[in-house]
Hints:
Largest sheet of chain A: 6 strands, mixed
Strand content of chain A: 15-25%
Structural class of chain B: mainly alpha
Strand order of the largest sheet of chain A: 6-7-8-3-9-10
Helix content of chain B: over 70%
Strand content of chain B: under 5%
Radius of gyration of chain A: 18 Å
Mean pLDDT of chain A: 88
Mean pLDDT of chain B: 83
Strand order of the largest sheet of chain B: 1-2
Shape of chain B: globular
Low-confidence stretches of chain A: none
Distance between the termini of chain B: 28 Å
Order of helices and strands of chain A: EEEHEEHEHHHHEHEHEEHH
Shape of chain A: globular
Order of helices and strands of chain B: HHHHHHHEHHHHEHHHH
Number of helices of chain B: 15
Oligomer: heterodimer
Amino acid sequence: MLAIHLLEVENLTKRFGGLTAVNNVSFNIDEGEIVGIIGPNGAGKTTLFNLISGFLKPDSGTIKFKGENIIGLAPHKIVNKGIARTFQVVRPFRHLPVIANVMVALKSPRGNKKIEWIKTIERKAVDMLENVGLTELMLEPAENVGHGDLKRLEMARALATEPDLLMLDEPFGGLNPLETDFLTKSIQRIHLDHPTRGIVIVEHKLYALMKIVNRVIVLHQGEKIAEGKPEEIAKNEKVIEVYMGKAM
Amino acid sequence: MVATYLRRAYSSFAAHVFDIPPRLLVFLVLLLLVALPVAKLDDYVLGILISANLLAIFAASWDLLVGRTGQMSLGHALFFGIGAYSTGLLFENFGFPVWVSVPIAVLVGTSIGFLVCFPCLRVKGPYLVLVTMAFPIILEALFKWAPLNDIFHGELGIRKLPSFFPFLKIQGQVLAEYYFTLTLLFFSSIILYKIANSHTGIVFVSILDDDVSSRASGINITKYKLMAFAISGLFASLAGCITAHTLKVANPPMLSLSWSFIPVIVTFLGGIGTIYGPLLGAYIYFILDRYVLTILVDIPYELVYTKLMVFTLIVVILILKWPRGLARFTTDKLQDLEEARDIDERGPKIWKTYTKKKKK
C-alpha cells in the first residue's frame, strides 16, 4: 500500500514576468518530520511558502495536503485544513495586546473547534503563550513588544490553530544567540508535544537549523539542487558551491 | 473610629468606581443628560439635543466600521438616507404607523446597505473610499431625478412624516422624543461598545491592523467585514429613520457628501476607535454648530458651508493638540490622576515603614 504523505508538492512552477521564482520543484513531507528549506537570497523559499499557504497561485504543478488538492483554496481555508505559517517579517496585530493576537487565531473555525469544552478562549490563549514563554507580556500591546518576542508570538499564533503542518519562515531571523537557543528549544518541545505534526523551517542561519531538522532541501534560483540528511548536505559539493562560490 | 470606617468605605468605593473612569464618567454624563430638560430648555435647544443624540448613534456606528475594522467608508450617509427614505416611503405609500415602519425601514436599510457592500469587500484603501462615496451620490441624484418626482418628490423630499408620540401636545412631544432618543443612544452605544470589545471585536481590530495576518490565522475576513458593515449599517439606518420622524422629513441632504463627512469629523474630534468618543464629539459638534455659530455668531444662511469649514478648522487644531481625541484625552487624564493618587497614598506608608525600621 502506498503511504500518503502529509504534504506532496509536485513540479511546482511560479513565474513573475520573466523571472522564474520557483522552477519545477517537487518534494514530500511526512508526519512528524522536521524539514529545513535552505538556499541563498532569491532562491524562491518564501515564494514556495506563499504558494503552499495559498497567498499565491502557482502557474503549474500540484500541491496535495493529506492527499487532497489545495491549489486555489483561499488562505484562511488552507489554515483551517491544518497548515499554519509564520511570516519572515513579523506581522503582529499592533493595536492588540499579545494575548488578543493569539485569540484572533482561536476565533478561526479550526482554532475554535480545538478548544476543549471546559476552556474559554482566554484560557487557551494563555496556554498557547505559555508554550513559547510569553505569559509575562500577555497584556502588553504588541507594538511595545520587542522583535524577538514578536517572533515567538507569531509562532504562538500559528500554533493556536493546532496545525498538522507548521511552516516557519525564517524563525531565527534577527535573533541574538540567546533567543535563538530559546526558540530552538521551543521548536523541539512543540515537536515532542505533537509527534505527528510536520514542521517546515525556512532559514538562513544554518548552524541553528542543522541541529533540529531531520532532512534538508536546498533551493537555488528556484530549483531544488539537493535533498538529504543535514550531514550529507553539509558535505554536498554543489551546495557548498552555491553558498561559497566556485573553487578557483 | 467612625473616621477610619468612613475612610475604609471611601477607599473601597474608590477602588470600585474610580478604577474604571469611563464607567463613572458614563454615569455622570447620563445623569446630566437625563436632568437637562429640568432646566426648562426651549424646544429649539431640545431639538438640537435630539439631533445630537441621533448624530451620536450615527457617528458611533461609523466608528465601529472605520475605527475598529479599518474599512474606510466615506459614504455612511447611504445607510442613514436609505433608512430615512424607507420609513418615509412606507408611511406615504402604505400608511404604515411609525412603530411598524421604523423597524421595517431599519431592516430594509440594513439589507440594502448589506447588498451594496459586496463590491466594497474586494477593494482596500483609497479605492474603498471611492466606492463607498459613489453609492450615496448616485442615490441622491436618483432621488432628485425629475421623472421620479412622483415617488421621491425631488429636492423637497418626503414630508409630513408622523411623530413618534402623536397623542401628546407639541411641548410634550419634543420632551418625549428627547428621552426616547436618549434611551436609544444609551442602548445602541452600549451594544456597539460591547461588540467592539467582544471576541468578534478583536477580530475586527485584527483586520484593521493586518488583514494578511488575519487570513494567515484562519480568519475569513470577508465574513467579518460583512458583519461589520451590517452592524454599522443597522445603527446608521436606525439613526436615519428616527431623524426622519423627528424632523418630519426625508430629503436628499440626508444622502449628501457633507452629511457623510460629519460623522468623520465628529469621530476624529472625540477619538477614533473608542465608540464613546463620537458621542462626546456629536454633542460638541451640535453645541458649536447650532448654538455658537448660529445663535451667538449669527452666520447668514448663504454662508452655511463656511460653518462646516470653520468647524473643520477647529477640529484640525484640536487634533493637533490632542491627537488621540478629546474622550481619550479625558480618560487618560483621569487615569493619570488615579495613578498619582495611588502614589500619594502609598508613598507616605512606605516612608513610615522605612523610618520605623530605622528606629529599631
